[in-house]
Write a structure and sequence with these properties.
The protein is built from three helices and eleven strands. The protein has 248 residues and is of the alpha+beta class. The chain has one domain. The strands form two sheets. Strands 1, 2, 3, 4, 7, 8, 9, 10 and 11 form a nine-stranded antiparallel beta sheet that branches. It has a two-stranded antiparallel sheet with strand order 5-6.
Length: 248
């Protein structure tokens, strides 16, 4: 019986060591992937949100979302300029409730030959990295059209040239961030999306891969209980001041 117990303990210890090794391998792979995207330097550009966000992945997946980071086009990371990129909307989003929303973010994005200028002979983006906030729904659930139009609530990048066999890169400038914002006349749900769109018509692209990552910094919205505690605290301070004045 003692031998059986010892064997059980040994098996359990072996399983724990195996799990620890597997976890370490996953962490190493994620770090290596982020390093390949250049995010080791990019994360120093600004202070990300202190708390992890509750992410929702797009139905087409092909993305990772953890903490305050989104990686789009995971299957394409480091690809050569060869066909095989899947068509889809790859990314993640989260929601926040309030009357206003503002988010700073930095980006490290890559694309092969993905841009076709909307003006002149071009008709839109072949691939588009889009960071946007809406009061309707996530980006992948909206009625979309190409080209995506940039605004205060929508940021977009997809390269600057087409068919030149050059891997283009967008990295947020050192010590600066990009931003999106939106306001509402009444409390509402803001849907925030950070995606790589390779399938919205009329221009779609499965020949020239794109991939990239974002870090976000979201201003927290105080909960109603926080406001209540603040008001109660101010009330107590006022009462204390009045009482002290009365006693002097």
């Amino acid at each position: 019986m003692k031998d059986n117990f010892s064997r059980a303990v040994s098996v359990d210890a072996t399983a724990r060591r195996g799990l620890a090794a597997e976890t370490a391998t996953v962490k190493k792979s994620v770090k290596a992937m982020l390093a390949s995207l250049g995010m080791a330097a990019a994360i120093g550009m600004f202070s990300p949100s202190a708390n992890a966000l509750a992410w929702t992945l797009s139905p087409d997946a092909n993305a990772l979302a953890f903490g305050v980071t989104v990686v789009d086009g995971v299957a394409q990371i480091g690809s050569a300029d060869t066909p095989g990129q899947p068509a889809g909307i790859f990314g993640a989003g989260f929601t926040q409730t309030g009357t206003s929303f503002s988010m700073d973010f930095d980006a490290d994005l890559y694309t092969w030959d993905a841009y076709n200028a909307p003006a002149g002979t071009g008709t839109g983006w072949w691939d588009a990295f889009v960071v946007t906030v809406s009061t309707v729904d996530y980006y992948w659930n909206l009625v979309l059209s190409d080209p995506v139009v940039a605004s205060a609530s929508t940021w977009v990048w997809g390269g600057t040239s087409y068919s030149d066999d050059i891997l283009e890169n967008y990295t947020s400038a050192t010590s600066t961030t990009d931003n999106i914002s939106l306001t509402s006349s009444s409390p509402t749900t803001f849907y925030v999306s950070l995606v790589l769109d390779t399938k919205t018509s009329p221009n779609t692209d499965t020949n020239h891969p794109s991939w990239g990552s974002f870090h976000v910094n979201v201003a927290p919205v105080p909960e109603p209980e926080t406001y209540a505690m603040l008001l109660a605290g101010l009330g107590l301070m006022g009462f204390s001041v009045r009482r002290r004045n009365k006693n002097t």
